[in-house]
Design goal:
about 55% helix; five-stranded mixed beta sheet; single chain; 4 helices; disordered C terminus; alpha+beta
Length: about 180
């Protein structure tokens, strides 16, 4: 009879070991599934954060674009068209009319636009009274375009026998924007 008791214990021991193995396997499977679920949740959280960050960046750029619309429109007005050399010449000639000086323009150079920005440059000579000459220089420096005035030379002139006249020479450069023809639009 003793033998039967041991065989009964063996069956219970085998059942206990089998149950423990099944529980360990199930625990490992559940642990793996939870680990995978956490990894997916963390990845989803990172994607959401990146999307939110991208949306915030996009919103900031959109607000900046909207807030600078007027400024961007003003910038274009500070350039003259690269094809509008006549406007440049008229602008320079009008300085003399407004200031009361006589203007001669020479050495007109129209630089082709690079990346849509170019320049028109001319040498300007003017003579007249001290006030007219200073007014001409002031008008050249305050033109409503992107303008550079350099190589300024001022002399007392003896024009037509009048020694009270002054002569000024300077180079003036205006930035130009390339304009597209209707066929390019």
């Amino acid at each position: 009879m003793k033998r039967k008791q041991y065989s009964h214990h063996r069956a219970l021991l085998i059942l206990a070991l089998l149950s423990a193995s099944i529980v360990c396997a199930l625990y490992g499977y559940v642990y793996y599934q939870i680990s995978q679920s956490i990894d997916h949740a963390l990845l989803a959280r990172d994607i959401v954060r990146a999307g939110t960050s991208d949306k915030n960046q996009s919103d900031k750029i959109s607000k900046l674009h909207a807030s600078t619309t007027k400024d961007r429109a003003e910038i274009v007005r500070q350039f003259i068209s690269s094809t509008d050399v006549v406007l440049f010449i008229e602008t320079i000639e009008n300085m003399g009319t407004q200031a009361g000086s006589v203007i001669k323009m020479s050495g007109l150079i129209n630089t082709a636009p690079t990346n849509s920005v170019g320049s028109i440059r001319a040498h300007v000579e003017a003579h007249g009274s001290w006030h007219a000459i200073m007014q001409t220089l002031l008008l050249a420096e305050t033109l409503p375009y992107m303008t550079t005035v350099d190589a300024v030379r001022l002399n007392k002139a003896d024009v037509h026998g009048v020694s009270s006249d002054w002569q000024i020479g300077f180079d003036v450069t205006m930035l130009t924007l390339a304009t597209s023809s209707p066929s390019q639009k």
